[in-house]
Amino acid sequence: MKLVPGQSIKMTVLSLPAHLPIVRAAIEKMCEMIGFEENCVGRIILSVDEAMSNIIKHAYQGAPDQPIDVELTPMGARGVDSLKICLRDYGRRVDRASIKSRDLANIRPGGLGVHIMNQCMDSLEYCNAPGGGTLLMMIKKVIAQVP
Known about the structure:
Blueprint: E1 9-14, H1 20-34, H2 38-59, E2 67-75, E3 82-89, H3 113-120, E4 123-128, E5 134-141
Antiparallel strand pairs: 1-2, 2-3, 3-5, 4-5
């Protein structure tokens, strides 16, 4: 099966941590089809896990019955060379200026999700979604293999 640039796979899951493995499996398969290296796939999945955990914790304040829209889009002008992942919630909007990594010198559990996403993905963009909530767009490019 060949992926076509711009043809998205879309799903909606509830804000339950138990639904994260479903999203992980879809991302893993899409990454495999695109041709990402295994260690890169792990970083992409980790980024999405962190983003979805933030949605559950901050946008939905732990409510287990709220929708999270997931859209996976293979991208590229001459074949597929990157993956765009969009996560959309309908919860409490967060001031985009306040979305940042905490100081890494401040050693304590938690609070590293944004740092992890910035380190693992090529781009992150947050915007207010029409009708409420937040849309997060993340892009990861395939790095060409050196023969």
